[in-house]
Design a protein that fits this description.
The chain is built from eleven helices and nine strands. With about 300 residues, it is α/β, with parallel strands linked by helices. Strands 3, 4, 5, 6 and 7 form a five-stranded mixed β-sheet that branches. A two-stranded parallel ribbon has the order 1-2. The mean pLDDT is about 95.
Length: about 300
């Protein structure tokens, strides 16, 4: 059984997941992770899918005819729809029926995985089901590389376990060796494991990629996602534009971390490997180690 204090924590809304006036609507959506994921994936286009148009994975138009996308809209709308209610409002504005399986390409939002994950967490929390966003790396997106990715975990009370699932929808119907709607622990590279394996030399850092314009990989990619995962577990699912100020130059490749900073991140990774077991310590770090929460932003 999930301890009450942990269950209550993951029922709490944060600034990105609070559904606002959409709570009742979210409660009307499917409970099953696969069914909900398939529905949400039909509301959203990934920026990579839009950029590639009607080629590669979309050669059969499984995601719709990208030539219908309005030229004047952004090729990635992440910065517009930062929160769950913003995404819901955007979808209702474009199609007043709401989350419908036959949404037209021109009425979808172009969002990446963090935003899908935030929307899913908001929906389950609104239903009264503990849920959390998780940040790490997916080895199933591109062969030989583990790509930065956000997924979800929802608590299954009758089975007494977290169900780990990927609601992004890029993989539905593709030839995958497992279902993305109930993944085992070895099918996703958690940020903590990636950091520790790189630090120990167990795996080459080049395997873990943060898909920015710089092709950031290795410890810089793992550190970024270690922070994302920590914040997400504290119900504070920051987007890609935010990072702790003290890490900013390191993540840009302008300076290295000191040994004591590396060791502190080692300790954080150790805690994040089992966030339920380490819940009390993680919440203590969240309340007392201010440098993890003092964020840089585009304007500050």
């Amino acid at each position: 059984m999930l301890p009450q204090k942990i269950a209550q924590h993951f029922l709490c809304f944060g600034p990105f997941t609070d559904p606002g006036l959409y709570g009742d609507y979210f409660r009307s959506l499917p409970d099953d992770p696969g069914e909900l994921s398939r529905l949400i994936s039909r509301q959203i286009i990934h920026r990579v899918t839009l950029a590639q148009g009607n080629t590669n994975a979309n050669a059969d138009l499984r995601y719709g005819d990208m030539s219908r996308w309005p030229w004047y809209r952004s090729a990635c709308e992440d910065d517009i729809y930062l929160t769950a209610p913003a995404m819901a409002a955007g979808l209702f504005r474009l199609d007043e029926r709401g989350f419908v399986p036959d949404r037209q390409v021109e009425d979808k939002l172009v969002l990446t995985c963090r935003f899908v994950s935030v929307l899913v967490s908001s929906i389950y929390k609104a239903k009264g089901i503990p849920c959390r966003s998780r940040a790490g790396f997916a080895p199933y997106i591109r062969q030989g590389i583990s790509m930065d990715h956000w997924i979800n975990q929802v608590w299954h009370d009758s089975e007494n376990r977290w169900i780990t699932f990927d609601a992004d929808g890029l993989y539905d119907g593709l030839n995958m060796p497992f279902t993305p709607y109930d993944m085992s622990s070895g099918q996703f590279d958690w940020a903590a494991g990636a950091w520790l394996r790189i630090r120990s030399g167990e795996e080459p850092g080049e395997r873990f990629l943060y898909a920015d314009n710089l092709g950031t990989c290795g410890l810089r990619a793992a550190a970024r996602y270690l922070i994302y995962d920590f914040h997400a577990l504290m119900n504070h699912e920051i987007s890609y534009v935010f990072q702790p100020k003290y890490l900013e130059k390191f993540l840009l490749g302008e300076e290295s971390l000191r040994e004591e900073q590396l060791k502190e991140l080692d300790l954080l990774a150790g805690l994040l490997r089992d966030p339920d077991e380490s819940f009390d310590t993680l919440t203590d770090w969240w309340e007392t180690r201010r440098h993890f929460r003092e964020l840089s932003s585009p304007l500050v």
